[in-house]
Amino acid sequence: MRKRLARRGAIAVGSPQSRRRPTYRPAPNDSADAAAQREAKRPEREQTFITRMVNQWWTRLLEAVYEGSLSEQEAEYESHCTKRDYLWNTVGIGVWGMVFPLLTVVTTQLVGAEQAGMFSMAFVTGTLLMIAASYGVRNFQVSDIDEVDSFSSYQVNRWITGALALVAGILYCTFRDYSPNMMTISLGVYVYKMVDGIADVYEGRLQQADKLYLAGISQALRSLAVAAAFSLALFITRSLPFASVAMAVVAVASLALLTIPLALLETEKSRGMRLEEVTGLLRRCFPLFAALFLFNLIESMPKFVMEGMLPYDNQLYFNALYFPAQGILLAIGFVYKPQLLRLASIWSNPRKRRRFDLVVAAMMVVVLAVTVFSGVMMAWIGIPVMSFMYGVDFERFRMLAYLMIAAGGITAAIDFLYAIITVLRRQGDVMKLYLISFAASVIAPLVLVALLGLMGAVISYLLVMALLLVLLIVEYVHIRRAITRERNPFA
To answer: What is the rounded average pLDDT for all residues in the chain?
Structure first.
């Protein structure tokens, strides 16, 4: 960009002379036209970095649209940047993970705990719908290193599941007989989470092309734009339904103007969609979808039980206690998700299976260390900071906060083990475990919330997560032994 601008004039862009705005004083005999022409020749002020990047992206996008294809354009960003992948993947996941807690704080401060609880409930349901839209395909897609299924088929698959998930959200709101305000809040959140679910397939394509850092940038920018739009709209109008709609509009715009074009411009053109591949993805990834959906439904069951038994402000308290635990899950994701492609490569080499097992064991130790550290931080400054942020006294919930941190560590371990089982392509083996845990998640909250209220919800969540982790560990050991026997019957 600098070179292009430099060729347009004699003054080098960025030099001190280029920053001075020359003044033109028309000569006494100058005509008005001559003065106007001289005014038009004035050099433009130097653009800021953000303005320059936006202009460059907009120009590139318009040129690609004018030429009739995004996929056939030449890529401009390099691949195989491990440090950059880690940095921007961490930023992207971190910003995305902060949207819910940040907007909950903003909502609490601007419109009160009751409406914040309503927003929290809508976000919980929206997250479940996002998982349904994603259909558990991301890890499967990224580890498809031979591109057995085309990216076009992955796209069609995702748009189908996204549309079905949104319809399910509308039906759920109708079934719950929500008020017009709660209906609008929920649908605004649902559209935003559907965009998250659909964007995931394009960001997965960037990761598949070893450009994970671009996926992180896309995720971060979308999350920042959504959070800014929601907060500004709520600050100006004090209307939670209006802010939710603004959030949805900005999310859709980010998908159309950034995420989709970036994935198409920066990766190789995919071969055409095949119906058998689309249906094959629906069939093969159903165990992934079912397990992930059941897992998150298990996580959310205490909240759904509370919605029928307790006031909405309890949703705020539960989610505020859960956010530090979610931080553990995100932190572990920062470590292992950028390595999924490499883990799949390690596993594909039978001579490196021992190394694969050592990586799994090391990650479980990391999960334990992060959980202990989070517990220490919660005991030291966590409770006072939460009380300040929300304007609510969380000292009375100190014991619940410790229990939730323990549950967060267990959840992170479950998430990692599930990803590993996906790499092994044995995801169907864990379905029965999730069904067992789902049954427990239905019974435990109904009993404990009725007896202990908010405390019962937290305890039931911890117990069910602990049960699922134990079942997964046992199943993983069984899978590894079975694979070893397949390779060497005499082992």
So the answer is: 84
